Amino acid sequence: MEEVRRKIRFRHYSLRTERAYVGWIWRFILANGRRHPRELGAPEVEAFLTRLAVEGRVAASTQNQALSALLFLYKEVLGLDLPWMQEVVRAKRPQRIPTVLSRGEVQAVLAQMDGRPWLVASLLYGTGMRLMECLRLRVKDVDFARNEITVRNGKGGKDRRTVLPASLVEPLQRELERVTVLHQRDLQAGFGAVYLPHALSRKYPNAAREPGWQYVFPAKSRSADPRSGTERRHHCDDAVLTRALKRGCREAGIVKPVSAHTLRHSFATHMIEAGYDIRTVQELLGHADVATTQIYTHVLNRGAGGVLSPLDRR
Fold first, then answer.
1. pLDDT at site 15
2. Would you state the pLDDT for residue 292?
3. Which keywords appear in this protein's UniProt record, sorted alphabetically (predicted)?
4. Are 159 and 126 in contact (CB under 8 A)?
5. HEC string of 248-301?
6. What domains appear along the chain, each with residue ranges and CATH number?
7. Residue 235: active-site member
8. Does the active-site annotation cover 155?
């Protein structure tokens, strides 16, 4: 398992991916009587994935994640080129229509929130960022002069730019002022070095303590890095927004299943409703394929929203 972790970190996978892969590989080993994976083959892998679907009733995405973990184990860790692994059938993900809030519903939810959760939720809706992209923002990536935000290392390891809403400039500037004060306190306490991706900490030894590299939304307290053990201030926990968003929806009387990603869906839908072309929306969202963005075209004069029911015809 240590070799699994080492290979994952060598490829700069996220901590969440590391935990997920290690968890699935360990479950696979336990399900087969703690036998070494070298002794196992296609029947055991297929049986394991089948049990997940039949007995565990997991979603297709969960089953595919387990398969990806096992593919990584055999190919990258054990160095075994097993053709049968490529023949294991991946579960087909069902096509779901994204949950979208109306403009009025978004405003009603935001009206029930305050403080940092309100600012994060407003940024998600106003920029189309994913939750972790927002929480991992660095001070240097917010450009007030150009009214834009640079998203670093987004999904697929890609950078992109998105719009900074004018209405959030002042609240965001106040938040950055608090970040500066907090960073100064950490420096005075002998800390203040933030996590830097890849080998930047070796290439730029002093960058971790520079104000520009600090998180826009730092955690309230310092904690030990789960990989290096170094005590530092990380970005705030995503659960903080999740709880605040659920509470805001409950108080606003919203019965739709709302998550942080719903705000991103709402951003894309409302942008297309406003007349922006799909290519522009694709770039703002960071989609590699325009086909992914086309799911939001249900807001145009097509589909259920653009059809007049015969019951309403007179």
1. 85
2. 84
3. DNA integration, DNA recombination, DNA-binding
4. no
5. HHHHHCCCCCCCHHHHHHHHHHHHHHCCCCHHHHHHHHCCCCHHHHHHHHHHCC
6. 2-87 (1.10.150.130), 96-304 (1.10.443.10)
7. no
8. yes
Q: Token digits for 286? A: 């960071």
> Which tens digit of pLDDT belongs to each residue from 265-288?
999 999 998 888 889 999 999 998
**pLDDT by residue (tens digit) across 108-119?**
999 999 999 999
**Which of 131, 163, 132 is closest to 147 using CA atoms?**
163
pLDDT band of residue 82 (cuts 50, 70, 90) is low
Residue of 160, 232, 233, 264 marked active site? 264
Residue 296 falls in the annotated catalytic set: yes
Most confident of 90-94, 248-252, 300-304: 248-252
Please measure the distance between the N-terminal and C-terminal CA atoms of the chain and give it in whole angstroms. 69
| CB crowding 47-56: b at 16 or more within 10 Å, else e | ebbeebeeee
The residue with greater pLDDT, 197 or 209, is 209
Tokens 């939750």, residue located: 131
In the set 21, 74, 125, 130, the catalytic residue is 130
- In this prediction, residue 178 carries a pLDDT of 95
Q: Tell me the backbone φ, ψ of residue 231, rounded to 5 degrees.
A: -80, 125
Which listed residue (5, 7, 140, 155) is catalytic? 155
Planar angle of CA 17, 153, 226, nearest 5 degrees: 40
Active site residue 264: yes
* Residue pair 186/192 in contact by the 8 Å Cβ criterion: yes
Query: In the predicted model, what is the mean pLDDT of residues 144-171?
Result: 91
Q: Which secondary structure element, helix H or strand E, spans residue 148, and what is its range?
A: strand 148-151
- Active-site residue among 261, 276, 279, 302? 261
